[in-house]
Design a protein that fits this description.
Elements (H helix, E strand, L loop, with lengths): L1 H17 L4 E2 H7 L1 H4 L4 H17 L5 E4 L5 E4 L14 H13 L6 H13 L27 H10 L3 E5 L8 E13 L2 E8 L4 E6 L3 E7 L14 H8 L6 E8 L4 H6 L2 E4 L4 E8 L3 H6 L5 E5 L1 H16 L1
Antiparallel strand pairs: 1-3, 2-3, 4-5, 4-8, 5-6, 6-7, 9-11, 9-12, 10-11
Helix pairs in contact: 1-4, 5-6
Length: 318
C-alpha cells in the first residue's frame, strides 16, 4: 500500500510539473493509472484531494487556476518549485563534510552520506570532506552505540513522552522513569537526554548508557513547557561538579582514575601506591567518585566523604 501511494504521488507530481497549462481533474484521472482504477467519482475525488494535500505538505507548490475551458485546473510551475543553486564556500563545505563524518556510526549514516553526495553533485567543493583519502590521526566522531538513541531522538522530534528503566550509578537495580524528552546531546563521549521527569516533577538529565531495556513511547501530551534553549552540557557539567567553586582532596590509587587525574588542579605523588589529588567539588561529585570504587578515598571535606560512604553502603546493601 505504501509503495502504491508513493508511486501515485510521484505520477501526480510529474504530471503537474510537466504541463504548461492547468490540468483538470478529468485530465489527471485519464493520465494516472491509479486514478483510472478508482471505482467512482467520489472515490477518485477523495484520493486526489488527499494526494494533492500530501504533495503540498512535502513542499510542492501547486497552483489552482481556471483553464481555457473554464474548468478548475492544477499545475506546479517549475520556477516555483526549483531550489536555488547550491552555493557553499570552502569552510561551509568542510563543515558539512565533517557533519557527515560524525554520524557515520549511527543509523543516520546512510541519510547523511546520501545528502553529501547530492550536494557534491550540485557543485559543492571537494574540500567539503577534508578527510577523504587521508588517514588522519584525529578524526571527529560521535559514537552512537546505545539502543535507546534512535527512539529517544524520534521522541524528542515528535514531542512524545517516553517510559524507560534507568539504573543510577549508585543503585543496584533500575527504576522506571516517565520522561518528557527535550533534547539529546553528546558530552565527553557519552550521550545524555534532557527532559522533564514526571515522577519527580523537575528537569532531569539521563545518561543513555544507563538506560536498560526498551524505550516505550506514550501517546500523550507534554505536561511541562519545553524551554526555548535546553542546556544539556551545562546541566551535566553542573551535576558532575564542572562548575564547582570549591575543592576536594582525595587519595587515588596509582595508575587508576585517569578521568579524575585529568580533572585535578593539583597532584602529589605518594610513595605508598596512592596519590593525592585536588579536584573541583560541586553537585554530583559524590556519585562520580563512587564509580571508581576502592581506587578512591575521600580525605575532605567531611560532607563529601559522608555522601560517598552513604552511597557505597547503599550499593553494598543492594
Amino acid at each position: 500500500m505504501a509503495i502504491a501511494k508513493a508511486e501515485r504521488l510521484m505520477n501526480l507530481a510529474l504530471c503537474l510539473l510537466g504541463t504548461r497549462r492547468p490540468l483538470s481533474k478529468r485530465e489527471l484521472r485519464g493520465s494516472i493509472e491509479a486514478y483510472m482504477e478508482a471505482g467512482n467519482d467520489e472515490s477518485f475525488n477523495r484520493m486526489f484531494e488527499r494526494d494533492k494535500d500530501d504533495l503540498r505538505e512535502l513542499g510542492l507548490v501547486i497552483e489552482t487556476v481556471e483553464n481555457l475551458e473554464g474548468e478548475t485546473g492544477y499545475l506546479a510551475r517549475r520556477d516555483s518549485n526549483r531550489l536555488p543553486p547550491v552555493a557553499l564556500d570552502a569552510e561551509e563545505a568542510a563543515a558539512l563534510g565533517l557533519a557527515a563524518k560524525v554520524w557515520q556510526q549511527a543509523r543516520l549514516a546512510g541519510a547523511a552520506s546520501g545528502a553529501l553526495q547530492k550536494l557534491r553533485a550540485g557543485g559543492m567543493p571537494e574540500a567539503g570532506d577534508p578527510y577523504e583519502g587521508q588517514h588522519s590521526a584525529i578524526e571527529p566522531r560521535i559514537p552512537v552505540h546505545e539502543a535507546a538513541f534512535e527512539p529517544l531522538m524520534l521522541a524528542c522530534r515528535d514531542r512524545r513522552p517516553v517510559v524507560f528503566d534507568y539504573r543510577k550509578s549508585t543503585a543496584a537495580r533500575p527504576e522506571t522513569r516517565q520522561v518528557e524528552p527535550w533534547a539529546l546531546e553528546c558530552w565527553r563521549g557519552h550521550w545524555y537526554l534532557a527532559g522533564f521527569d514526571r515522577d519527580r516533577g523537575a528537569e532531569r538529565v539521563f545518561r543513555l548508557s544507563r538506560i536498560t531495556g526498551k524505550v516505550r513511547s506514550r501517546a500523550a501530551k507534554y505536561t511541562a513547557e519545553v524551554p526555548d534553549v535546553v542546556t544539556v552540557r551545562e546541566t551535566v557539567a553542573s551535576w558532575a561538579g564542572e562548575s564547582a567553586d570549591r575543592s576536594a582532596l582525595i587519595r587515588l590509587r596509582s595508575g587508576a582514575g585517569y578521568p579524575l587525574r585529568a580533572k585535578a588542579t593539583a597532584v602529589r605523588e605518594g610513595g605508598d601506591g596512592w596519590d593525592e589529588l585536588e579536584i573541583p567539588y560541586g553537585h554530583g561529585l559524590d556519585a562520580w567518585l563512587v564509580e571508581f570504587g576502592p581506587d578512591v578515598v575521600v580525605v575532605g571535606p567531611a560532607d563529601l566523604r559522608a555522601d560517598v560512604v552513604d552511597r557505597l553502603r547503599a550499593v553494598a546493601k543492594g
